[in-house]
Amino acid sequence: MAITSRQSFLLRKLVEAHRDLDQPVGSKWIADQDDVPWGPSTVRAELAKLEDTGLLEHPHTSAGRVPTDRGYRVYVDELLAAGKLPVPRKPLELTTMRREVDEAMRATSEQLSQVTNLLALVTAPPIETATIRRVEVLLLQPQVAMVVVITSTGGVTKRVISYDAPVDPGLVDWAGSYLNEALGGLDVGSRALQSRLAAAELSAGEQRFLATLTPAFTELEDTAQNTLFVEGAARLLSEHRFQELSQIGALMEVLEHRRALLGVLRQSLGEPSVYLRIGSENVAPELQSLSLVAANYGLARRNLGSVSVIGPLRMDYPGVIIAVRQAATELSRFVAEVYDE
Predict the structure, then answer these.
(1) Which residues contact 217 (CB under 8 A, 6 or more apart)?
(2) What angle do CA 293, 295, 297 make, to 5 degrees?
(3) What is the value of pTM for the model shown?
(4) What is the pLDDT of residues 15-32, one digit of tens each?
(5) Angle at which helices 317-340 and 69-82 cross, to 10°
(6) Sign of torsion, CA 327 328 329 331?
(7) DSSP letters of 23-42?
């Protein structure tokens, strides 16, 4: 659907005016702007054409016009194609955070929500991207040992095991050395992990002791599944936006049960630039009164997760897109350092 350059200009003016004024925009108001060279009758005629093509609509018969989902889509696509996004803000500061990816993701969601005043979400790297970096086996008491597993994503899992009889300290030292040598660099959940924990060349005593430590490794898959960091629900539900979120109950349900939302965000991993779904473009019914802006983060040849914002249709799309992209870029730098260590 092609529109003229004049219509494109007027569509952008109307979308941005609606965003700033929070009300339908009339043709006279647009014609009165200093950068609009056409009179009210010309503007009115062009807006009527935009309405006929489904880009604008009248919420009330006597009121001005507001953008439709398709209108927002054309507006954003033209911004992206023309490279007219605003100058980037100061990057998010993640360098002072503890060197753990989960802390960086939490910081990203908090700061992105503050910058956009919307709901910010960051998905953690899927468990299959993590490898075992280091294993520590410690004897806390004669009959109590602890195994610590550190993954390439900075995650730390600890498990304390109690025994009926005192444990041989030499066996504990051997286990630490063996596990680092046998499991270091293996993917979490790898089939090779199980076979090396029960290697045939090990003695019966060694196999029995490793069997007591095995849950610390097998449970990594259960405890480190995709995690979703969410910040800004209170901002999204603030009183001045409440009427815009007609499906607020459904959205809260999706946030509570997060699996469906994780599935939606996972789709953004294949998008090279920015993943944008406006209103009815969202497949999930709970999100069809909202807009979703997301960008992926990760390594040079592997996307690990997504940074996203959810908000009302009437949002500052240029500002949100640049903020999401910037957050994803900064988080990519952070995880690259962690994974390369």
Answers:
(1) 132, 149, 183, 188, 193, 197
(2) 155
(3) 0.70
(4) 999 999 888 999 999 999
(5) 60
(6) positive
(7) S-B-HHHHHTSTT--S-HHH
